[in-house]
Design brief:
heteropentamer; A mainly alpha (479); B mainly alpha (112); C mainly alpha (629); D mainly alpha (166); E mainly alpha (459); B: 112 residues; mainly alpha; 3 helices; D: mainly alpha; 0% strand
């Protein structure tokens, strides 16, 4: 019951918000709801589950054998925690932002949250697909309604692109369902399904394509920079911080355990593509002048590393991905918050037109520098832990992959430092007027900074969250 | 006569009807060609009726109504054709009243 | 000893206090906090040192840092002989630099002043983490930490784009090295299953393949190259002069650049098992020493000369490491810390006195304006040139002798480097302090305040006597105290060294005589030549090449930076926009195009509709009757 | 060749010929008349196959009522001239060929379908009104009644479409 | 059976109502009430059996499936009257006659969902078709309407000819018109039978507007008065589908391998043509016409698979498609501009309707949480359950579903993200808005619990 409250609290609150017209009340409710969810999530993940993870199941579609079943295992713990934390941060950081029809905006945000929670919790393939799409629909409206220029076309491309991936996944889900022993959508029976080699190839690819587009993995990434650039920043935070994790999570929950043989067979190919993507995105990021696109490409590079590590077929990389999912989410939200503050005040997102903001906004600068360094995995920040483990795992899979992928840490330094330099350093600009952080923003960024260091210095609690999952996947890898 | 002859005959007339539908532009003639097609079908049905009647009579001489269902079907086809004709001609007349033409290609606003 | 974990925490505390309260604290408080924590750390280090001297080494396991499956990386500190030496150097020299900074940076506003001290403290913290770490991962944390701090400090004056670029360059080049280090760490994890020094070294020599060990050591070397500014990753160090002078002193003397030496010395056991790597270390060291020395010959910026001299001296240390003289290398680190800190701080004093003029061509005759600085600098120059009994003599001599033992070629080239060192250092000395003053008449140079001169005097003293802890056998039996002290660290590996034939005492005497004689000759020549004002002529030929640092920066720019940017452009325009994205959009466009074409089927003509229907019927009849399935 | 066969061939030839005429005559009135001839020929076939009732109905309903209706409309519209525009030549020929091909295909598909040979007329009374009527009002009463709905709607339709005064 | 008898009778009632009632409003009201009565009668039949026992003599067989479909279609019809009644009034003067014709169509639907004899199929299809020809041409002032009627009529009669040829050939092959007699396992398959089935298949494909026999659909749907397009595109089409499925239900196994290929080709062509052509349309009405072709492609999966999934899928599809399309057309009929631009800024004009329309469009696109998702889901499941041989077809179908998102979402984009010239509210009553919203809510309800509807198949 507690698990379903992860979904239903934001869902019901979101529906309610459509009818609340006062802007401040709406904001307050959203923040309160996200805090409430965070509280519930924290409580749920702190329950020592013993060997059996927390779960909940109820018959949904009897004749289809599809249940409303939720499961809070390691990956789910991390991703739900990320979701809950992210939304609190987002609501906090964008407290001052003005939106036309704010109630609709916040309602859709909460619906997105519900969808995301559902994706991360479902242990039933049909339910998973349901939420998979449901998370997308509010985002479509958010981006199309409150986004920047060309928002309609860009969002549409994003939507159709991901939709194509997910319909293919649907075919896969139905096919597997048909192959299960008792026609069931349950995760357990999916894991037990026996397929021929040819079927495995097809349906592995179907599932993978859906996840790869969502992540996004090179070369399916082209929707992403545009979408990040045009979406309203609050939504961009959701997209980049949490939503891209849907793809990774999908791989963790539905691809690796269900297609263990195929996963190791295709691993080489996928890792190569991931690594190409890492370098490719990093190199493009170096040449970006638009700060939002820069962050978008940096995200592609980071996600590429995570996807490569997921297939590296060892527990260190896997665990690294889990905690990096959380850390990357936090860090990139931090980056977006800063970008949003700058854009809200100056209306500029071209780095060449910015500069010298450090004089006017020292706190902002410091926060950004910390977040940026966490983003390029400086030790003692959270980014390091995950990347260290992922590179380590990748190295064990194939040293050359780790070395080539490792070039990205150099390139990441280049573009991140370039960004800091162009935006914050240099002579004080006469035309740009930037005020330093307001309390809500300060609080959000401070939370992020604290999390960055906490997870960077003492990552054990986070690592333990994922440990449970480790056994699950380790079991399926050896299957 | 072998039944195939009747089949051929019906198919020939049917095809002539189809050809007429395809080649003519006068909607009344097109409609007449459709009637021709229906008559070909009727002919075929009657032939099959006869065929099955004879086949079944060989098995069971008492079954004198064997095969009549096809003839009744023909009867119904005629009924329906009559109804169809009344509507069809009404539509054609309607069109003629508006545009003074019965050319099927004359009205061509709905496309693409 | 039990307070040892506090040593890095103190600077961290200083960093936090200065950093978080930067708007509230006065400069005095900031200075006291900033220097005070280092002083306390130095005292604690000294206590630890005495404990170590008494033979007590210890590993502090604080908590589990990363612990997954079979991999356990604890957050641990290890204090042994090598660490103790480095602790003393870092906190000792670091403290002097902090004191010096209180005066040097006094013109900054409160907040920036505090920021500066916060960075300095963080720098020391990172370096302490680096040398105290009980495993490679902790070392890596410090390793990257110093990179970060160098970035922050070099770009301290963030208004200036050139400074920012220098800072970025430093960080990026360090990152290249860091990648090597990181790969080495992964390799170590794969090979040994752990990263703790004790656990790793206790498995050696073992039956590991030479490839693995060579690979690990080479990767570590890449890391060391980045941090210790060796060819090909040395170009950031001269540019790092963009930072305030105390920062240069800190980077060049006490921290950061010595990290590479520390790391290789720490991994000595691995290196001795990989003779090829050793050779590479030696060759790179030698090449760096020579290259940097040649460049230093023609530089006019006082800090640039010192910077290249640092690179050159680091090359010596690498040479020492490469030929197996680990003690010698560490020894040179120590003496170098003294005299290079001295030289930089002295140069800072000069710059301070000369109102931020750094070009030596505008100096001259400062001897009479700044006597203390002059004296200290002279000591420093003598020490770095290797005149006995100054400290540099002993350490450099030890390395050269070891190099001779490995190969006379190393020795000859090393000696050539040493001669150049003497030459450019005394060129610097002469141009700065001797002759006539060439600067503006109305900007009178002045001696620096006490907070600057006292550290200079202390360092001058250390530069003079610092070498005495390592007197070679030649002069005194058991005179090499440092060797004895460090012996436990290197003992295990020494037995696996390829024994070089140790030169006989007579050879050693001869070598000494030759080197000292030549150096003195060079010094005399340099002093004579550069005391007089130089004709301001355009350099030509080799001179121009040297003045432009062998055009290495330009080479890197053309061969690496520009192609990468070009590839980035290519990717973002050709492949991203008109490649992949066009393909994706092309699908959409294709559908729209086919939509436009397909709707032409719907011509609005009943006749053609019927015709198409009939044709379709025929198709299906044909399909059903004439296609066998 | 007996009379039955002679009648068969004659009627078949007549039917095919006149139906060809239907689709080739420019003047729609001729087409109608040839169609009526075709109906007569077909009715002749019905008689050959003992379907006397249908033969009569065919003539009364089709030739008598329906075709007169057609003729009436044609006359009403004054379309008895050769006013019909020709189709595009290519379309015309392709249509004709398509029709021919359809015939060939169907014949080819069905030429071996059934070896059954029909007997001479007179055997059995399936075409008698009595038999048909019995069957129609017992087994086929449901469709018979339901066809009234069809007529009702046709009637309503004629009103809806034909009524003036909009 | 109740449906067939009473819809005929009620049709006659409507005919005569015109004599006594002169207020169009009242006529609509009467028709709505009568439709509700019809719905109640069908419900009664589901629960308690028919009111009259008629000896149908192998002509009809009332099945639960048929009754459920009737029930859905009647409910859709009621919704249609409620939403579009006021627009029916505007088509012309013969309002009672239009209603009468619609009731007659329902009689045809009753036949089409329960026939067991090809004669009844033929009659049913004709009873459905002939009123539709009339309704299509009922806007006599409008040349488009007449053109549509002519086209529909000519092509419809042509396809009737094809169907009759097919029936004749089948009769030649089997000697019977009974569906039950077709499944002659073990006996050699006669060519007559094959050709006959093929021809019937083609004519039924025509009726459900499957490509390449779909050509009439866009033109007729576009030209007919919008209210009647709504009726034709939804209720009638579903009925035709059910008739189609019933036809092949018994006869299918005989020649399954070949049939599957033929139907697969038809499905592929239908999906491609429907979806792709819809992309470039400028008029929402015409887009919906193509979309109805596209949806037909999905419904054909039921025929392709011919298993229980497909049947359940058709039930859901009937509900999904009718609700959404009737709702869309009802709003469309009140719009002054049928192009996509006409919907610009619609969310400002009619926020409630915009939400409902969005839900309808999402349902048509097959997005989860709407019944449209489950209807597509069941179809795909049905197809997959036949084995992996036609995976390409399923992939194609799903990709086409993605294409369909393109044109459905264009309406959503126009409604929400663009600003339009028209700002006044639609000429619609509050009850209209609430009814549409209720229908949308029902779409969502079925989208969460499709079982609620499907359970009626099996109790």
């Amino acid at each position: 019951m507690m698990l379903s409250s992860f979904i239903f609290i934001p869902l019901l609150a979101g529906l309610l918000l459509f009818f609340v017209k006062q802007e401040n009340l709406v904001k307050g409710i959203s923040l309160a709801v996200s805090l409430a969810v965070l509280a519930v999530v924290l409580y749920a993940i702190s329950i020592p589950a013993g060997n059996a993870p927390l779960s909940y199941s109820r018959v949904w579609l009897g004749s289809l054998n599809s249940n409303f079943s939720l499961l809070l295992d390691g990956p789910a713990k991390i991703t739900t925690l990320l979701t809950a934390v992210s939304f609190v941060l987002i609501f906090l950081a964008t407290w001052k932002n003005k939106y036309a029809n704010a109630h609709n905006y916040y309602a859709l945000m909460l619906l997105t949250m519900a969808g995301l929670m559902g994706v991360f919790l479902s242990a039933d393939a049909l339910l998973f697909y349901f939420f998979w799409e449901l998370a997308l629909i509010p985002v479509y409206f958010l981006c199309s309604q409150w986004g920047g220029e060309k928002r309609i076309a860009v969002t549409f491309k994003f939507f159709i692109y991901t939709f194509v991936g997910s319909v293919l996944m649907l075919i896969g889900i139905i096919y597997l369902y048909n192959k299960t022993a008792h026609h069931s959508f349950a995760w357990e029976s999916f894991k037990a399904v026996v397929l021929t080699a040819k079927e495995q190839t097809y349906f592995f690819l179907f599932f993978f394509l859906a996840f790869a587009i969502k992540m996004p993995l090179f070369p399916f990434h082209t929707w992403q920079p545009d979408a990040y650039e045009t979406a309203p920043t609050g939504t961009t935070m959701v997209l980049s911080g949490v939503m891209v994790k849907m793809g990774l999570f999908g791989v963790i929950r539905w691809l690796l355990p269900v297609f263990p043989d195929m996963s190791s067979k295709m691993a080489g190919c996928i890792i190569v593509f991931s690594i190409i993507g890492i370098l490719y995105a990093s190199l493009i990021a170096i040449r970006q002048d638009n700060i939002k696109r820069l962050i978008a490409y940096s995200s592609i590079a980071h996600i590429g590393l995570m996807s490569a590590s997921l297939f590296a077929n060892n527990s260190i990389a896997y665990e690294g991905v889990l905690i990096q999912m959380f850390n990357h989410g936090i860090n990139i939200i931090g980056l977006w918050i800063v970008v949003d503050i700058i854009e809200q005040q100056t209306g500029i997102r071209k780095m060449s037109e910015l500069g010298g903001l450090a004089h006017q906004a020292p706190s902002l600068t410091i926060m950004l520098v910390i977040v940026a360094f966490a983003n390029i995995a400086l030790p003692l920040t959270n980014g390091f832990i995950g990347e260290f483990m992922m590179f380590n795992g990748l190295f064990q899979y194939n040293p050359w992959y780790a070395v080539v992928a490792g070039i990205s840490i150099i390139l990441a330094a280049v573009y991140t430092l370039g960004m800091i330099q162009k935006v914050f350093y240099g002579e004080k600009s006469a035309t740009l007027q930037v005020k330093d952080l307001v309390p809500a923003q300060w609080l959000a960024l401070a939370c992020i900074v604290v999390m960055i260091f906490a997870a960077g210095v003492y990552p054990k609690p986070l690592l333990q969250l994922g440990e449970n999952a480790l056994q699950v996947v380790a079991g399926s890898i050896s299957k | 006569m072998p039944i195939t002859y009747y089949i051929f005959l019906a198919v020939i007339i049917f095809s002539i009807g189809v050809t007429g539908v395809l080649t003519r532009r006068n909607s009344i003639i097109v409609f007449m060609c459709i009637e021709l097609m229906l008559n070909a079908v009727n002919l075929l049905l009657v032939a099959f009726s006869k065929m099955h009647h004879e086949r079944l009579m060989l098995q069971d001489p008492a079954n004198i109504t064997a095969g009549t269902e096809a003839q009744l079907f023909v009867f119904f086809i005629m009924v329906v054709a009559a109804a169809e004709v009344s509507i069809g001609l009404a539509i054609i007349v309607l069109m003629y009243r508006k545009v003074h033409s019965v050319d099927i290609n004359f009205l061509n606003r709905l496309k693409n | 000893m039990k307070f040892a974990p506090l040593i890095p925490l103190l600077p961290l505390a200083g960093f936090l206090i200065n950093g978080l309260l930067r708007n509230k604290l006065s400069k005095t408080v900031t200075g006291i906090v900033g220097s005070g924590v280092i002083l306390v750390a130095f005292l604690l280090s000294f206590l630890a040192f005495t404990d170590v001297q008494a033979g007590q080494t210890q590993v502090f396991r604080l908590f589990d840092f990363i612990s997954v499956g079979k991999l356990h990386i604890p957050f641990e500190f290890q204090v042994d002989q090598l660490t103790a030496i480095f602790l003393l150097i870092i906190t000792g020299v670091g403290f002097l630099i902090h004191v010096y900074s209180t005066a040097y940076m006094h013109e900054e506003t409160n907040a920036h002043f505090a920021r500066f001290f916060a960075y300095l403290n963080l720098f020391v913290f990172s370096m302490l983490l680096l040398v105290m770490g009980g495993n490679y991962v902790i070392m890596f944390i410090g390793w990257e930490g110093v990179g970060l701090c160098s970035y922050l400090l070099i770009g301290y004056w963030f208004k200036n784009t050139d400074y920012n670029n220098a800072a970025k360059k430093a960080f990026v080049m360090n990152r290249i090295g860091d990648l090597g280090f990181l790969v080495a760490v992964f390799w170590i994890i794969q090979l040994f299953g752990t990263t703790s020094y004790q656990a790793v070294f206790s498995q050696l020599p073992g039956s590991f393949s030479a490839t693995d060990i060579t690979g690990i050591t080479l990767c570590l070397l890449v890391g060391a190259m980045g941090k210790s500014a060796q060819i090909p990753l040395y170009t950031w160090l001269p540019d790092a002069m963009a930072g305030p002078t105390p920062v240069s002193a800190l980077i060049h003397a006490a921290t950061m650049v010595t990290a590479g030496i520390y790391m290789i010395a720490r991994s000595n056991f691995l290196y001795v098992l990989a003779p090829h790597s050793m050779q590479v270390v030696a060759i790179i060291g030698l090449a760096t020493a020579l290259l940097a020395a040649t460049i230093a010959l023609k530089q006019n910026d006082i800090k640039k000369v010192l910077a290249y001299s640092t690179v050159s001296q680091l090359g010596y240390m690498f040479l020492g490491l490469g030929v197996g003289a680990f003690t010698g290398a560490v020894f040179h680190v120590m003496t170098h810390a003294f005299f290079k800190a001295l030289l930089f701080l002295g140069a800072g004093s000069v710059i301070h006195g000369m109102h931020h003029q750094q070009d030596m061509r505008h100096y001259g005759g400062l001897k009479k304006f700044m006597p203390v600085t002059h004296f200290a600098m002279l000591m420093g120059c003598l020490a770095i040139a290797g005149i006995p009994p100054f400290s540099g003599f002993f350490s450099k001599d030890e390395i050269l002798v070891a190099a001779f033992a490995a190969s006379p070629v190393y020795y000859v080239l090393g000696l050539a480097g040493a001669l150049m060192t003497a030459f450019y250092m005394f060129r610097l000395y002469a141009m700065t302090f001797l002759g006539q003053h060439r600067g503006d008449a109305h900007h009178h140079p002045h001696e620096s305040p006490k907070a600057i001169t006292i550290p200079l005097i202390v360092l001058a003293f250390l530069s003079v006597v610092g070498g005495l802890i390592g007197i070679p056998e030649l002069f005194m039996k058991d005179g090499h105290k440092l060797h004895n002290f460090l012996d436990p660290v290197f003992k295990a590996s020494q037995s696996y060294m390829h024994e070089h034939v140790h030169p006989s005492h007579s050879t050693e005497w001869m070598l000494l005589a030759v080197s000292v004689g030549l150096i003195v000759a060079v010094i005399v020549f340099a002093v004579r030549k550069f005391s007089k004002p130089q004709a301001d002529t355009e350099a030509t030929g080799l001179g121009k090449v040297l003045e432009n640092k062998w055009y290495v920066d330009e080479l890197y720019n053309t061969v690496i930076v520009k192609p990468i940017l070009a590839i980035g452009d290519l990717f973002s325009t050709a492949i991203e926009k008109s490649g992949i994205d066009k393909l994706v959009n092309g699908v959409g466009k294709g559908i729209q195009y086919s939509s436009r074409q397909l709707r032409l089927l719907q011509g609005g003509n009943v006749g053609s509709y019927l015709l198409m229907m009939v044709l379709s019927i025929m198709l299906f009849i044909w399909l059903v009757f004439y296609i066998k399935l | 060749m007996n009379t039955f066969q002679i009648a068969f061939w004659f009627l078949s030839a007549l039917a095919v010929f006149s139906s060809l005429m239907v689709i080739t005559r420019k003047n729609p009135v001729y087409s109608v008349l040839f169609l009526i001839i075709t109906f007569f020929a077909i009715s002749g076939h019905y008689i050959l196959m003992n379907a006397q009732f249908l033969a009569i109905v065919n003539i009364i309903v089709y030739a008598g009522a329906i075709m007169v209706l057609f003729l009436f409309v044609l006359m009403l519209m004054n379309l008895n001239k050769e006013s019909e525009q020709q189709k595009n030549k290519y379309l015309l020929w392709s249509s004709a060929i398509a029709g021919g091909m359809l015939m060939v295909l169907l014949i080819a598909a069905l030429h071996t379908s059934n070896p059954m040979v029909l007997q001479q007329p007179g055997a059995g009374g399936i075409g008698l009104i009595k038999n048909l009527g019995t069957k129609l009002f017992t087994d086929y009463v449901v469709p018979f009644e339901l066809s009234s709905i069809l007529f009702l709607s046709a009637m309503v339709g004629a009103v809806v479409l034909g009524k003036k005064g909009e | 059976m109740n449906l067939i008898i009473f819809s005929g009778l009620l049709g006659v009632c409507m005919m005569f109502a015109g004599l006594f009632m002169h207020s169009k409003r009242n006529i609509t009201l009467l028709a709505t009430v009568l439709m509700a009565v019809l719905l109640a009668l069908n419900t009664w039949e589901i629960l308690h059996g028919p009111i009259f026992t008629v000896n149908v003599k192998d002509m009809l067989a009332i099945t639960r499936f048929g009754l459920l479909i009737n029930e859905i279609l009647l409910a859709a019809g009621l919704l249609y009257f409620l939403l579009s009644g006021s627009d029916i009034e505007k088509v012309g003067n013969n309002v009672p006659d239009y209603y009468a014709l619609i009731f007659f169509v329902f009689a045809g639907i009753g036949i089409a969902t329960s026939y067991t004899n090809l004669l009844m199929l033929f009659l049913g299809i004709e009873i459905i078709s002939i009123p539709l020809y009339i309704l299509t041409g009922s806007d006599k002032k409008n040349l488009k309407s007449i053109e549509a009627a002519l086209k529909y009529f000519l092509m419809g009669s042509f396809s009737t000819g094809i169907m009759l040829m097919g029936i004749a050939l089948i009769y030649g092959g089997t000697g019977s018109f009974l569906l039950a007699k077709f499944n002659l396992e073990g006996t050699p398959i006669s060519y007559n039978l094959v050709a006959g089935f093929l021809l019937i298949l083609i004519s039924m494909a025509f009726k459900v507007s499957a490509a390449p026999f779909h050509f009439w659909t866009p033109d007729v749907y576009d030209g007919a008065p919008t209210v009647f397009t709504s009726f034709m595109a939804t209720i009638v089409k579903v009925a035709a589908f059910v008739a189609f499925i019933k036809l092949f239900e018994g006869a299918y196994q005989i020649i399954q391998a070949k049939w599957q290929l033929v139907i697969a080709i038809i499905i592929a062509a239908t999906l491609l043509i429907g979806n792709i052509t819809a992309v470039f349309q400028q008029s929402v009405k015409r887009m919906l016409a193509y979309s109805s072709i596209a949806q037909a492609g999905f419904m054909l999966f039921a025929l392709f698979a011919m298993n229980n999934w497909g049947k359940e899928g058709i039930v859901l599809y009937a509900a999904a498609y009718c609700l959404a399309t009737i709702g869309l057309f009802a709003v469309l009929a009140k719009m002054e501009d049928y192009t996509f631009q006409g919907f610009n800024g619609f969310s400002k004009r009619e926020p409630m309707l915009a939400v409902a329309l969005t839900i309808f469009l999402l349902s048509l696109a097959g997005i989860p949480l709407t019944v449209g998702f489950f209807s597509k889901y069941y179809m795909v499941t049905a197809a997959i359950a036949t084995g992996g041989k036609y995976l390409w077809l399923i992939i194609l179908a799903m990709l086409c579903a993605a294409v369909s998102v393109y044109y459905y979402f264009k309406v959503i984009q126009a409604m929400y993200f663009k600003t339009g010239e028209h700002t006044a509210a639609l000429p619609a009553t509050a009850s209209f808005r609430y009814t549409v919203l209720l229908a949308a809510a029902f779409v969502v309800f079925l989208g969460v619990l499709p079982q609620w509807l499907l359970q009626f198949l099996y109790f």
